[in-house]
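TEACHING EXERCISE
Course module: macromolecular assemblies
Task: Read the component lines below, then compare them to the predicted structure of the full complex.
Student: A.B.
Group: 4
Components provided:
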Amino acid sequence: MKKEHEELIESYADKLSLSVLDEVKITVPADITKEKLSKIMEEIVAAYESAKVNPGECVGLVSAESIGEPGTQMTLNTFHFAGVSEMNVTTGLPRIIEIFDAQKEIKTPTMEIYLESKYNNLDAVKKFAAKIKETLLGELVEEYSLNIFEQTLKLTLNKGLLKDYDLTGKEIIKNFKTKMKNFNLDSEDNTIIFTHKGKAEEIKELYNLKEKVKDVKIKGIKGIKQVLPVKRGGEYVILTSGTNLKEVLELDEVDSQRTFCNDIYEIYEVLGIEAARQAIINEVYKVIQAQGLNIDIRHIMLVADIMCANGIVKGVTRYGVVSEKASVLARASFETPIKHLINAALEGEVDNLTSVVENVMINQPVPLGTGLPGLVTKMK
Amino acid sequence: MADVYLNSKFIGVTDDMVNFVDDVKDLRRKGTLPEGVNVYFDKEANEVHIFADEGRARRPVIIIKEGKSLLTEKQLKQLAEGEISWLDLVRQGVIEYLDAAEEENALVAYREEDLTADHTHMEISPVVISGITTSLVPFGNYNQSSRLIIGSKNQKQALGFYAANYHLRMDMDVSLLHYPQKPIVKTKINDVVNYDEHPSGQNMVVAVMCYDGYNMEDGVILNKASVEKGLARSTYFRPVSVEELRYSGGLIDEISVPDKDVKGYKSEQDYRFLEGDGIIYPEAKVGEGDVIIGRTSPPRFLSSLDEYNLSNSARRESSISLKHGEHGVADFVVVTENEEGNKLVQVRLREERIPEIGDKFTSRHGQKGVTGILVPLQDIPFSASGIVPDLIFTPHGISSRMTISHLIELIGAKVGALAGRYIDGTLFESEKEEDLRSELLDLGFREDGTEIFFDGRTGKQMLAKIYVGNMYYLRLRHMVANKMQSRARGPIQLLTRQPTEGKAKEGGLRLGEMEKDTLIAHGASLLLKERFDADRIILPVCEQSGLMGFYDFRKNGRAISPLFGENSEMSDIEMSYAFKLLLDEIRSLGLYVKLNLKNKY
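Instructor-supplied answer key:
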């Protein structure tokens, strides 16, 4: 690119944003004349100016309407995936509510685990999937037998499963030998025998043990309840039900740049607030696309911005975003009015009537649109 | 071994349940046991139940033995000739009544062709799977079940000949259809329920086509000439009743023409229809505000003696008059007494209702629609033979709802009208569509029911052939005249000073939360303020205390602060009354809400 062209483009730095200038630099053909380029730049400035939001435009309300209006159509057609290959993930309005309310316990936590290229073959994927899946002892047991006279509990394990998981009884015992204080452990082939040390008064203890060993984790990552390797565009992706982002990202096989989960709160804790913001945008957009609706992504970005503005994820609820409103009257008009009024009275709060709801309440012009500008004159 | 229960009480045991049950059935069929006994073997619970108590819903079915109906041709013939009756068939053990329990052990065939060796009973007719109103839908078996339900629900709302003694009755909010007709396409149930004696619709010529979009989104178009000739015309009745209430202290209301010095006297003009007894005369044409029954009531509070002495002048006016937008003709007057012995006067108002834009019509197939326009005769499409439709129905109503019966009825009634006979459209037993079509062909019409049509406005032949025929259409009770309402200004609520809500109170249409949002989204904040000015007030507010003051008219109307009295700066502040009310209520909680005043400019 000629230097004079570059200078010309640079001279627009006060009118256009840097990213726009960079894009122009890349796309403009090298043999363009200076006159043509300056004409193009003027056009870009005009387009840029007309795309700007006017002062006093109530973007939040427009976003709310733009999300809310198609949302009414969403309530009725919550569809489910039929079939074995896809997992049943919450979609539709319930999912939107889940995200916008920033609920900590989501209904169907899932992860999409991407793998480093050298592990991206069927055998490795299968092995990896089996490795991360949380396996409990209870799943392997074929038969429990309690012997009251000898005070023993005998577990018979499924041979096929043991082979699949590449385990033996002896290896399993190692996992929790130290934790067992009152029992001696022994293993033979596919059986594990617990023998009570000394004399036990009650059979209850043995029975409690049986319930307890069911939930003992043998291998895998905590929280990963199911794994499902799927082939997506030439590479394998592992979908999971249940999440544990922190531990999964630490594994060598995992491509930590692309792996994510659908739990906004977990992303916030592991990856930080910016990642959480992006997760909100992605998750909401995914639902909207699945429903076949057309909502501009900037509306969702605005909501995500508001939710993450304070460095922590806040839901659009009376405990979250709404509690941040400056106006007492606006907060009181949303939910639990008496609580807000009494707290305001205790603190001696002043409402400066700067926003919409409070001005509608007292019948004053709303400081937006035509109500925003004031006229300043010199008084003699 | 199974327990045996009689009317749910344990009475014994049996080893051979099947034979036991069969024995009971046989004895009942023979007449040894009463006909009302039902017996049922519950296999899962291993219990035999015999029911002979009252209050069980039962239904009759024909008994089947070894795959053959016990009802013979001979018996049918005898039945037709009146030699035997239904009860004879029950006594002979040909027909028996099953209750819900015994039905569990029975296998009932719908029709004779379906019979197998396993069947124990057969329906008298397949129609019995549906109820009375549902069976009134002709060709109902061609429909989706949900449409059948909607169709039968619509028929309940149809205007018709609802009671033969209607002219003596004081029913609230009823209508009477003028010239109701028997349906050309009927079902067997129509005859069973004597539908022809109290029909509720009219046979109209229906064209399935569009007409400038006036029948889009479930609209129907009516022929204005047909309407003027009396199509679907009805009369609306509404009673007004007044009684002389008794109050404590021997005081009583009085039905009479109120004296001029009565509190709340309207104007002489308003009382012009009242006769000497204070009641309107029959056939008086009354309009908005006219008094129907004149009445005065004793004063509400008897505070001081002097008011008590001027008894007549203190009486209140409590007449019944027509409210905003109401009119009609006084039809019938009844003077009687109620249960407490108070004088009771009832006046029935009558109003002729000519179909207009917004009135609701439906066929019997759940295809309801609202009148979009009344087309004058000269503009209406006409067929090559000069037939003009009474009603134009939109073709878009059919595709998604799949009411095939609607289409078949159109052909059926066309055949019926041309051949001069009634068509049977009974559920599952209707005349065959092919037969109707070929009969239509024999009558000289196109077999598919379409005809060449011409546009009434241009006289040009229409490109498509139009599906046209007769249909039984019903006028539904939802009429715009009862629902339409408008207001520019009017009554307000006492508490909030905001407009009242609802038609009865001449209320406004609320500009709600979401409507408010749209104005804000457009940035039209001053328009929004103006819209919400309905309860606007201007209040004096004290600048020091931030409290609302008052005007003291003993001191030439100066604004006074509640805290600082006259020594205060008072400013007039504009706000909504509802907000003032909110401030008052918060103050009643014991909170000091202060208005900090500041110059806006």
